[in-house]
Design a protein that fits this description.
Layout: E1 7-10, E2 13-22, E3 33-38, E4 44-54, E5 83-84, H1 88-103, E6 109-119, H2 132-135, H3 144-147, H4 201-211, E7 216-222, E8 227-233, E9 236-241, E10 244-248, E11 250-254, H5 262-280, E12 289-299, E13 302-312, H6 319-326, E14 334-335, H7 337-347, E15 358-363, E16 368-373, E17 377-381, E18 389-398, H8 404-422, E19 424-426, E20 432-434, H9 444-447
Antiparallel strand pairs: 1-2, 1-7, 2-4, 3-4, 3-15, 5-6, 6-14, 6-18, 7-8, 8-17, 9-10, 9-16, 10-13, 11-13, 12-13, 15-16, 17-18, 19-20
Helix pairs in contact: 1-8
């Protein structure tokens, strides 16, 4: 087990001094500041922290006032070590099967996902077996492995808090000493492999903040409880302010707004109706509204259609009732939700884990909270005998109008940029580069620009 102190980070909030860990969602209605991680299969970890600090953004050219993650400590996996729980043929077969189920009236929409894994170390294949090229044989020449480390122009974005990649006077927040070697890389063990600090999820969170900034970015590190998650999620699952609860489902993904089709809007509206129904189960009748429908939001490398659903919780409804009504999130399951979950269990080849779950914080004292949908999310799995594995999920919403090749391409569009960011290492000069590009320093923006994924004409449908 790595010697890394428990912590959580959400925007400018940094939580440390772990006091309590429970699976009881009712604890979120008690007192204190909680970090929450719920995986898609229903395992929930709620961690209460005693020390919560807000780190203000640093002025240009200055050091941050509080503890900050150090992106330089992250050593990502080999870009070509990524393997998928479903190859292209299996995924497209799944899309066709869902369309057949839609034709019979069993379901209207299903979110079909695959989990990608890569070992955090050299010489091993991902959790799903075979090399990236072996598992993904036959993928068009624009496959994700080819894009990781490829030249692409564009602005990579910045750290929202202005803190990534900088040491503080007190050292890193993880409670470990900064043991970098003379060449600036992370500490290494006697056999030359990267030490545990090189696989610190908080350092990956800093890398994501620089390479793929997101409105609901966050990190939870609880190694002793099997939770090491860093998310660059663009999607709000649940926000609470007193008795008001709000959700921001995303359905509809494209490279540009001009590529959205009527099918994307229909898909979004369908899921909005599902979320309205979910919140209606725990909200006072007549209070559930849709303040925004199909708004276009831009994120690194793509755009989304985003809606807002809001309601007022009925008296006596707390976090257990809210999760029972709304989890898993409707945007990553389908409609009707019960039918979609059954089909997901039949067709998907691996558990989703942290992907498509929920990650965020709850301040029980102030009765405020913000939980993200666990998309664009990485987690470290240390349960295997071969060492730690980095995991990531990608998926697409399947409707009657779905094209199998287009849906596969959408999963690549969503994954390409983030796999590139997570596969980076940082050299002694502080210049980020992927493993494939080590030894050839290039500016960050030249590595993580817009990614063209497939050489096929397609529009990117909903999730």
């Amino acid at each position: 087990m790595p010697d890394l102190a428990p912590m959580a980070r959400f925007g400018g909030l940094v939580a440390s001094d772990l006091r309590d860990v429970t699976a009881d969602l009712g604890a979120l209605d008690s007192a204190g500041f909680w970090a929450v991680a719920a995986d898609f299969e229903g395992r929930t970890v709620c961690a209460r922290f005693g020390d919560v600090r807000r780190t203000p953004p640093a002025a240009p050219g200055t050091r941050p006032a509080g503890p900050a993650p150090d992106a330089r400590r992250w050593r990502g996996p080999d870009p070509k070590a990524w393997t998928s729980s479903m190859d292209r043929d299996a995924y497209e077969k799944g899309v066709r099967e869902i369309r057949d189920r839609i034709a019979t009236g069993e379901v209207y929409q299903v979110n079909l996902c695959r989990v990608l894994t890569a070992p955090l170390g050299s010489g091993r294949a991902g959790r799903h077996g075979g090399s990236y090229d072996d598992r993904w044989h036959g993928v068009p020449s624009g496959r994700i492995a080819d894009r990781i480390g490829a030249d692409a122009g564009g602005d990579a974005g910045g750290e929202p808090n202005g803190t990534a990649g900088q040491d503080t006077a007190d050292g890193p927040v993880d409670g470990t000493s900064a043991q970098n070697t003379a060449d600036g890389t992370a500490d290494r063990t006697a056999d030359g492999t990267a030490g545990s600090a090189a696989y610190d999820i908080d350092a990956l969170g800093a890398v994501l903040a620089r390479g793929n900034p997101a409105p609901f970015a966050g990190t939870i590190r609880l190694p002793g409880h099997g939770v090491e998650i860093a998310t660059a999620s663009p999607e709000l699952f649940l926000r609470r302010a007193g008795g008001t609860v709000e959700s921001g489902p995303i359905k509809g993904t494209a490279r540009t707004a001009a590529e959205f089709l009527p099918k994307d809007v229909a898909e979004n509206v369908m899921i909005v109706d599902l979320v309205r129904n979910d919140l209606g189960r725990v909200c006072t009748p007549g209070t559930v509204t849709v303040p925004a429908l199909c708004a276009v939001e831009s994120h690194p490398g793509l755009v989304h259609l985003v809606s807002t659903v809001r309601g007022e919780l009925r008296p006596g409804a707390g976090w257990p009732e809210l999760f029972a009504a709304a989890f898993p999130p409707g945007s990553v399951t389908g409609a009707p939700k019960s039918s979609a979950l059954r089909i997901i269990g039949e067709l998907e080849a691996a558990p989703r884990g942290a992907y498509c779950g929920a990650i965020g914080w709850v301040d029980a004292d102030r009765r405020t909270a913000e939980l993200a949908v666990g998309i664009r999310t990485f987690w470290i799995d240390r349960t295997g005998s071969d060492g730690p594995v980095l995991c990531f999920g990608s998926g697409a919403g399947i409707t009657w109008g779905s094209d199998p090749a287009g849906e596969w391409a959408e999963t690549e569009l969503k994954a390409a940029r983030l796999l590139a960011v997570a596969s980076e290492v940082t050299g002694p000069d502080g210049v980020e580069r992927t493993r494939a590009e080590r030894g050839r320093p290039r500016a960050l923006a030249s590595i993580f620009g817009p990614v063209t994924v497939c050489r096929i004409a397609y529009r990117a449908p909903g999730r």
